[in-house]
Write a structure and sequence with these properties.
Length: about 170
């Protein structure tokens, strides 16, 4: 009968400040996979064109803001902030069947804002593609200009590059 006490192996001391500690057996070329999900989507460049139509007989100014992206944007939303109050606003896209919601943003002057969010395109997911132009039309009693434009995707603000030019 064996009367020797089993010895406990001393665990290795591993230190990796600000990194991932790898322990275990001896490996000649260890590989660390630091993929924590898919890479972020590319930053879209959104071309913005601003035009205004002279007031109709009722004195209503119509302002159109055309947006065009160069890459796919999932669940796009935009807040347009103007220098004066709006009466109404809506959005249309090249693709005729979209589901969208619009209203005022929570801002210090909500009457000067238009918040729009695309919910569905062609009865599918809200994928805004480069060949689909978005036209936002607003109505106001006085001429208005865009002061600020903020964009996002889903529930998050998304970095976007805005280029202001009419093509």
């Amino acid at each position: 009968m064996n009367t020797e006490k089993p010895t406990k192996a001393t665990p290795p001391n591993i230190s990796a400040p600000n990194g991932i500690a790898i322990g275990g057996g001896v490996v000649t070329n260890p590989t660390v996979n630091n993929n924590y999900g898919p890479p972020p989507p590319p930053t879209p460049t959104v071309t913005v064109c601003f035009s205004q139509i002279a007031p109709s007989s009722g004195g209503i100014y119509r302002t159109t803001v055309t947006l065009k992206t160069d890459v796919e944007v999932m669940e796009p939303w935009y807040v347009l902030i103007f220098d004066g109050p709006l009466l109404d606003g809506n959005v249309h896209m090249t693709t005729p069947r979209i589901a969208e919601e619009h209203g005022q943003a929570n801002d210090s002057k909500p009457e000067n804002t238009l918040l729009l969010k695309i919910k569905s395109i062609d009865f599918g997911p809200p994928r805004w593609l480069p060949d689909n132009v978005m036209r936002v039309t607003t109505q106001s009693m006085e001429p208005v200009k865009i002061v600020k434009l903020v964009g996002g995707s889903g529930e998050d603000v998304r970095e976007e590059k805005f280029v202001y030019r009419c093509e």
